[in-house]
Amino acid sequence: MVRVVIGTEFGDIEADIDTQRAPATSANFLKYVDGGLFANSAFSRTVTPNNQPNDAVKIEVVQARLGTEMRGKGFPAIALERTNVTGILHKDGTLSMARGGPDSATSSFFICVGDQPSLDFGGKRNPDGQGFAAFGRVTKGMDIVKRIQLSAAEAQNLTPPIRITNIRRR
Question: Can you give the pTM of this predicted structure?
Fold first, then answer.
């Protein structure tokens, strides 16, 4: 495990990155960390039971993205490491890569608030059933994650986004 600290304007979130069970996803995330690309990024999205009116399968997560000045400076998309292979399920505090389709994850990631089995392989959140690539778990700071989730938002967009000062290895 590699421990990282996600520094936010609300305080620090510590997480263990599982380089053994999700090696490709972890390596991708750590390239962004080590390259300093998460400096001045943000948690920009909150998904709660109340802001998903058109989704049959509801989830609870907060999602981070690169800052404006770093967008376009990232790395190519990676292959999807499915949860039925890694065994890392979307439980409370799980870190996972955001994606549009399989093999499309780059830098955006989310943290689960509560257990989210519909995000695992075979889950019903995405029509393709492939799930998302879980790669780590919050070890300290879930109170910060929950505070981010409950921050002001318009639809699912945090207003304003919650600034991430940096993500670094501990």
Answer: 0.97
152 in Cβ contact with 158 (< 8 Å): yes
19: its two tokens: 């380089």
Distance CA(132)–CA(145), nearest Å, equals 19
- The residue among 100, 103, 59, 52 whose CA lies nearest residue 81 is 103
Domain range annotation of the chain:
2-169
Quote the CATH superfamily of domain 2-169: Cyclophilin-like (2.40.100.10)
A 10 A CB-CB count for 23 gives 13
Among candidates 6, 42, 48, 34, which has minimal Cα distance to 136?
6
Which amino acid is present at 107? Answer: S
Say how many C-beta atoms besides its own lie within 10 A of residue 119's C-beta. 24
Nearest Cα to Cα of residue 145 among 38, 57, 22, 48: 48
pLDDT by residue, tens only, the chain of 170 residues: 999 999 999 999 999 999 999 999 999 999 999 999 999 999 999 999 999 999 999 999 999 999 888 877 889 999 999 999 999 999 999 999 999 999 999 999 999 999 999 999 999 999 999 999 999 999 999 999 999 999 999 999 999 999 999 999 99
